[in-house]
Amino acid sequence: MESWKRNPLIFLLTSLPAAFWLLVFFLIPLAFVWVLSFGEVAGIVDIAITWTLSNYARALDPLYLGILWQSLWIAALTTVICLVVGFPLAMGISFAPSRWKSLLLLLIILPFWTNLLIRTYALIAVLRRNGYVNDTLAWFWSLADRALAAIGLGGVLPDFVPLDLLYNHGAVIYGLVYVHLPFMVLPLYAALERMDKSYVEASLDLGAGQLRTLFSVTVPLAMPGIVSGIIITFIPALGTFLTPILLGGPDSQMIGNIIERQFKSANDWPFGAALSFLLMYVTFGALALRAAFVSRRRDAEAL
Amino acid sequence: MFRRAFGRASRRQFVKGSLAVAAAVPLWPQIGRAQERQVNVYNWDTYIGPNTLDEFSAATGIDVRYDLYADNAEMFARFREGNPGYDVIVPTNDFAQRMILAEMIQPIDKSRIPNFSNIDPRFQDTVFDPDRQHTVPYFWGTIGIGYRKSAVSPPPQSWGVIFDRSEAYADRISWLSEPADLIHPAMKYLGHSINTDDPAKINEAVELLIRAKENIRTIAGDNGQDLLLSGEVDLALEYNGDVLQVMEEDDDLSYATPQEGTILWEDSMAIPTGAPHPEAAHDFINYILQADVHAAIAEYVYYALPNAAARQLMSQDYLSNPAIFPPEAVLDRSEVALYLGEEVNRLMNEGMTRVRAA
Q1: B31 CB-near residues (< 8 Å, 6+ apart)
Q2: Fewer Cβ neighbours under 10 Å: the N or C end of chain B?
Q3: What is the pLDDT of residues A125-164, one digit of tens each?
C-alpha cells in the first residue's frame, strides 16, 4: 500500500465525506449535549447554561452509580456469553467448506432484517408462561405422565407448573445475547478467516491436542477479532433501553432507561445529558483499554 | 346493542405506539406555501374512529395529515423546541396545563366552535384550564385495577390489593411505569391528595411502593392488559380503556375502581402555538364535537364521552358499563392531576427510579 504522504491531495479529498459526516452528525450534536450537561432547568422549556456541575454531582449519587453498576455487569455478562457462544460459531463458519460460508454468514445476519422491537416481542411469545418453551415442557410433562400411567404409576407426577422465564434479569440478558450475538460473531469470523490455517495444522502435526491448539494457537491469533467483538458488543449492550423495558422485571432498569426518562417524562435534559456523558466516559474507558491492549501487543511483536 | 369493531385497540399502548410513530411519515415544518385547506393533527395512537378523518375531509374539503404519539411526554418533547408543524394536539390534563403555562398552546376562539354547547356542563369548565379558554374536552377515563375474576376473590375493593405486599397475589401483579401513573394511586391509597407538592407525602408513597415491590411481577410499559390476557399476571394497574379492550377477548377479565378514589384523566383537543392552519384546526375541533361524529369515535375507542349530545346516541351497554363510567361514590373521591411545577415532576421521576432500583 502506498503511503498517503505521497498523495496528500487525494487523501484529503477522499476523507472529506467522512470528515463531514463525523463533524455534522457526531461532533456538533455531541457538543450540544455536552454544553447542555452544564445547564439548569429554568422553567418548563427553558434551560439556563450556567456551567454548573450539579448535574454531574447528582449523576454520581449512589442511586445512579448503582444503576450504572447494574448496567455494567448486565452488559459484561452479555458480552461474555456472546463470546463463549459466538467463538465456536465463528470457528465453525470459518472452517466450513467455502460454498457453505456465505449461506452460514447470511443466517447470522438474517435477524437484522427484522426490526429489533418485533424480535423482542417475539421473545416474549417464546418465554411467557403460556409461551412456546413452557408449552413444549408441558407437552413432555404430559407425555411422561402418560408413560408413568402406562406402567401403573398414574398420578405420581404433580401438575405442570409453568416456569417464570420472563420479567427478570435472566430474561434481559437472554434478550441482549440474542440481539448482540451477530456483533460478536462477525469480527470473530473476520479474524479467524484471516488466520493462516497452516498454524493450526502445524500445531496438530507437532502433537498438540485439539484443546491445546485452540487455546495456544487459534485464540491468540484471533485476539484482535475477540477484542473488537467484545467492544462492539459491550458498548451497545451497555446503553440499551428497549430490552429491559420489555423483558425486565420490577428492578431491571439500566442507565439507558434513566437517560430516556430524563428526556421524556422527567423533562430534565441537562441531567439526561450529564448521565449520557457519564456513560460515554465509561465507553471511552473501554476504548482506551483496547488501545492500550493493541499497543502492548505491538510492543510484544516488536521484541 | 351494537357490536364494537373487532380488534379495537386502545390509545395507551406504549410500544405499539412507538412503532406507529416510527413508521409515520415525518411531518416537514411548514412547506413554504400556506395551505389553508389542510389540517395537521397529532393524536394518540388508535384514538379516533376508523372513518372519522375521511368523513371530515369529505364534509369540509380539508385534507388531514395525521401523526401518532404514544404518550404525553413524547409529544411534549417534540414541542419543547417549537411547534414542528401541527394544528391540533390532544394532551392530558396536567400536560395541557403545563403547555398552557409555557404558552405552547394558543387560546381557542369559541365563537368558531358552536358545537361546544354539546359538551356536558360539568366539563365546560375545569381546574387545569379555567373557562376552557385553551382546550376542548375529547374523552376521559380512569386508572384502576384490571383483574382475572377466577383468580382474584373477592373482587378488588381497595388499592391495598396491589400496594400491600399481599402474599396471596405474590408475583401475580403488574404496575404501570409512568411515574405519576404509579405514585398517584399509591398516594390515594395513603389518603393523600395527588395534587400536593409536599415532598414528604410523595416520599411516603414511594416508600410504600418500595415495600410492596417484592411481590410485583413486573412494572409494565403500559402493556399490563396483555399480561392479564396471557395469564402472566392476575392483577394489573392499568387504564380503563386498555382493560376494556382485553375484557372483550376474555370474559374472565374485569376492571375495578378502588373505593379510596382514583385518578381521573381528561384528554383535550388544543391548538398549539404557531399552528400553520388555525382556521382549519377550529373547523376540525368543531366537527369532532358534532354529536354523531363524537359518538362514532366513542363506539370505536370505548372511552367515556364528555359530550352530552353524543352520549344520547350511545347504547345502554356503553352507558351502564361501570368500567367506563365508575360509580358516583368513587368519582366523588377521585381527582384530576394538576401540573405542580418541574420540582414535583423531578421528585416523582426520581421516586420512580428509587422504586425500581430498590
Answers
A1: none
A2: N
A3: 999 988 999 999 999 999 998 888 888 887 778 888 889 8
Domain co-membership, B313 together with B341:
no
What is the extent of the structural domain holding B128?
14-140+265-319
User: Distance (Å, rounded) from C-alpha B170 to C-alpha A20?
Assistant: 56
Same domain, B306 and B335: no
The CATH superfamily label for domain A33-128+165-294 reads: MetI-like (1.10.3720.10)
Chain B residues bordering chain A (beta-carbon distance below 8 Å):
15, 18-19, 71, 73-74, 76-77, 80-81, 98, 101-102, 104, 171, 175, 177-179, 213, 216-219, 221, 230-232, 342, 345-346, 349-350, 352-358
Contact B204, B250 (CB under 8 A): no
Indicate if B205 and B311 belong to the same structural domain.
Answer: no
- Backbone φ and ψ for B165, nearest 5 degrees, come out as 55, 45
> Which of B219, B226, B348 would you mutate first to test chain A, the one with the most A CBs within 10 A?
B219
Grid cell 415442557 — which residue?
A137
Q: What is the dihedral of CA A244, A247, A252, A256, to 10 degrees?
A: 0
**Contact across the interface for A253 and B80, Cβ inside 8 Å:** no
Best of B71, B216, B233, B353 to substitute, by most chain A Cβ atoms within 10 angstroms, is B353
Distance CA A295, CA A187 (A): 19
Question: Which of A64, A66, A266 lies at the smallest CB-CB distance from B349?
Answer: A266
Written as nine digits, the cell of B252 is 374472565
pLDDT of res. B307: 97
Which ranges of chain A have pLDDT less than 50?
A: none
In a domain, B2, yes or no: no
B42 Cα to chain A: minimum distance (Å):
17
The domain that holds B183 is classified in CATH as 3.40.190.10
Query: In chain A, what residues touch B345 (CB-CB under 8 Å)?
Result: 265-267
Which of B14, B8, B145 is CA-nearest to residue B74? B14
**Angstrom distance (rounded) from CA B30 to CA B16:** 28
List the single residue in B101, B179, B231 with the smallest CB-CB distance to A130.
Answer: B231
pLDDT tens across B229-249, in order?
Answer: 999 999 999 999 889 989 999
3-state secondary structure of B220: strand
Number of domains present in the structure of chain B: 2
Interface test mutation site (partner A, options B232, B348, B354, max chain A beta carbons within 10 A): B232
